[in-house]
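Quality-control log, excerpt.
Job 1 of 2 completed; input and output follow.
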Amino acid sequence: VENRLKASREVESVDLPNCHLIKGIAFVFNIFHCFGKGLKFPGLHSFAPDKPGGILMMDLKEEKPRARELRISRGFDLASFNPHGISTFIDNDDTVYLFVVNHPEFKNTVEIFKFEEAENSLLHLKTVKHELLPSVNDITAVGPAHFYATNDHYFSDPFLKYLETYLNLHWANVVYYSPNEVKVVAEGFDSANGINISPDNKYIYVADVLAHEIHVLEKHPNMNLTQLKVLELDTLVDNLSIDPSSGDIWVGCHPNGQKLFVYDPNNPPSSEVLRIQNILSEKPTVTTVYANNGSVLQGSSVASVYDGKLLIGTLYHRALYCEL
């Protein structure tokens, strides 16, 4: 377990010059740079346990981008909203769909919204629940009601989850969901976490957080996946973002997982951002773009890039915005 959590690892700082902190934001995701705020997760420290979650948007095309909360349509249960992974899909008619992994009262659903640009609001369309989605972590949308999702555990019961991790069963998986068909398309992960898709829609990337790996899977016309390669890293890889212009993968990482699960304000969780270029080649280039021992940024979980601007989200209470 110690090796899976990288419990003894300390980080050397790698700083970026033009950065400032944004408070009140946790997870950061691509396209519109929507974030979930306020994820509450069993076993993880929460700075605002009583506040419901929400969705914020940040337009990185603006001169001085700022986060704005999106209104959510009436009839959706905001009080129990506990957002986790987020993905967007843009249809042929330019309709934007937002998919959000939700853990209301620690259950597992995927909420599908339509983004109403004129009102800066989200119209709730559908709640997805399925027996093949027992412990959803992240999603990547591939249609208006179609997505790939990672289950970070096989079980939904907290004690069985703990046992599954402790026994190192490797029962986590990836599921394809559509209104007509739901199926497991990849399995054997220690703890499948972040998931994303290449700009050409041919490859799916999956982060296995406790195995310190990124899996490259080829997508087939029937939506099945076959594994092409595995990239091994020396850190706990959380969420994956894709730079749409280059296809580079930007990874939010936890250098030391032990500090995440045993939170100590005097020895806080550190942060690390990796950039992976040419992942399909024989020797992908892996660069540490940012690293901090927790003095500035704790528990980095995702890094998103757009047009020379970098947004690093965390499991906690703040994000870091940098101009590269």
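Job 2 of 2 completed; input and output follow.
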Amino acid sequence: MGFDFTVYKGSHDGKVLKSTTHKDYLKGDQVLVKVTHSGVCFTDVHYRQADMVLGHEGVGIVAEIGSDVKDLKVGDTVGWGYEHDCCGRCKSCLSGWETMCPDRKMYGLADFDQGSFASHAIWREAFLFKIPPNLSPEDAAPLMCAGSTVFNALHSANVVSTSRVGIIGVGGLGHLAIQFAAKMGCETVVFSGTESKKDDAIKLGAKEFYATKGLTSLDIGKPLDHLIVTTSSQPDWHLYIGLMAPCGTISPVSVDNKDLTIPYMPLLLNTLRIQGGIVSARKLHREMLDFAAFHGIKSINMHFPLNVDGIERSLKTLTEGKMRYRGVLIARD
């Protein structure tokens, strides 16, 4: 007895495979979620050759609850992101930084038999987020990782409404970072390779836009207090380091396995800070969802069915750089 549900896994040759996961009866604060939507993240591309269930931007409906569930009820719309559990006892957990817990359970590192590319999933209530009523499931899904990541970067850098914030890249992360920074009241400056995304960037809230392909120097007038780097590879740091105001913060948020090599003396002489970061801890994640719902922050999405063909097409679109700007898989009953 228990639960059997459909999941979609990576494989050694990179093909998406349909499979089944079995879970026993719900225990403690566990919640069975029927998946309705899932965002598609480039991290899913990184793991498509692993023997694990893919997807970590899940949204769905509570279908059943365990005996210790306190707040959620059947029928609630909930979401989950990169982190699934933590120890709850260490210094990081007790200070509200459970994303830094040494025993954290995260996508790609634990719970390999579950993900958001699935018909259902079972997670602890403590790591599920109730979706605000004025935020649709489709709009909520990309916020579970992409929105959480850029909001965390803005928060960790102590961005305030008077900050001048630069954002490199207008993609899945960048187009959300633009909206969050603009709605925070920041002077938002966007950098992209070409002019092709300029109109979108301006509509999303950018006050300035600079196309950088082929340039060896940039003149943007006032310096930047903060720089959020959302591109899939590192930028030419020589092009940007001189744009930073003294005591400014550079926040890389996308994955690149190459070493960070950055001009040393400008970093030293201008007291610049490089702030790494991943997704938000739960308190900040909740605030991010409320902020997005209140300010109408929404991902620009391309839709795909939540099945093998839809997943394959979404990952291909993402890999080819043709996603504008976030893929969302939609379950069809």
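Post-run check on job 2. The chain has a mean pLDDT of 97.
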